[in-house]
Amino acid sequence: MTEQALQIVACGPRADAEAAARAIDADEALEAATYSILEEDEAKGVWRIDAFPVTAEEADGFRRVLGGWPGLSVVVEALADADWLAMALSGLPPVRAGRFFVFGQHDRGRAPPNTVNLRIEAGAAFGTGHHGTTVGCLIELDRLLKARRFARVLDVGAGTGVLAIAAARTGSRIVRGTDIDRPSVRIAGENARLNAARVRFHAASDLAGAPIRAAAPYDLIFANILARPLVALAHPIASALAPGGRVILSGLLRGQERRVRAAYLAQGLKFEHRLYRDAWVTLVMARGARRY
User: Fold this and answer.
1) Same domain as 159, residue 31
2) What range does the domain containing 29 cover?
3) Could you give the count of Cα atoms lying within 13 Å of 194 in the half-sphere of its Cβ?
């Protein structure tokens, strides 16, 4: 860990911010690092990257990459010695995404009676429902559910488990989730219990584990991770998908869409739908009724 918790903020034109984000994704030293990108001021065309390094090496890597774009103003800020993550989450408003209403403990009294209400406590895991990628996945799930139900669902890179829990709460009988981060697996399990959702989460870096293979093939697979692992996992994800199944892909920037989409087209899947939210893209790919 860094001796002092840091936040690195870079602001500037959209083109520079998106290019810097692609460079972060391509940097092996920052593969597991946490950052976000969003539009800060639409009128002025200002975009913002917030990076949260947890080691000195990650901090150096963010400074190096972000410093490569003169159009970005980069500031390194020391975070107060406090539970800043919990403090930040306590101020987040609830999120509505189609039929889903995602909220934390601080908003438990605001859940409407006519929505699928998901109480999600993030802790150190990704996926409160506020990020454009998570919202995009929930909106696409809502759209797909208007036409059919999905009996078997897999959530790759589950984070807080919100997507897997949303599937379980809308009728999916068998739901599995994976994450490379063991604390996230624990948090996801706690969230499943809070929501009375029957989901099994497993710590795994791939889809080769027996619990994941045993429940395959899946009618729906979520993969809300990053562009590079999305490409690397194209074959195992496509292989785990049932005929007629759908995969919802997110965690990629608009400039990364073509590469990710091509990786899944090469596995015999067909492009079905896309959703843009902020700088992020959510893709829906489909397997035909027959195996390829």
Assistant:
1) no
2) 6-81
3) 22
Query: Is residue 158 within 8 Å of residue 181, measured between CB atoms?
Result: no
Do 29 and 110 belong to one domain?
Answer: no
CB distance 250 to 276 below 8 Å: no
Burial of residue 154 (CB within 10 Å: 0-12, 13-18, 19+) is buried
CA distance 83 to 79: 10
Show Cβ contacts of residue 153 under 8 Å, excluding neighbours closer than 6 positions.
Answer: 164, 167, 168, 172, 174, 175, 176, 218, 219, 220, 221, 222
Phi then psi dihedrals of residue 219, to 5 deg = -80, -25
pLDDT tens profile 136-160: 999 999 999 999 999 999 999 998 8
User: Do the domain assignments include residue 44?
Assistant: yes
- CA 41/CA 52 separation, integer angstroms: 21
Q: Is 171 helix (H, G, I), strand (E, B) or coil?
A: coil
Same domain, 51 and 110: no
pTM: 0.72
pLDDT digits (tens, 9 = 90+) for 3-30: 557 889 999 999 999 999 889 988 888 8
Q: Which residues pair with 273 in a beta bridge?
A: 284
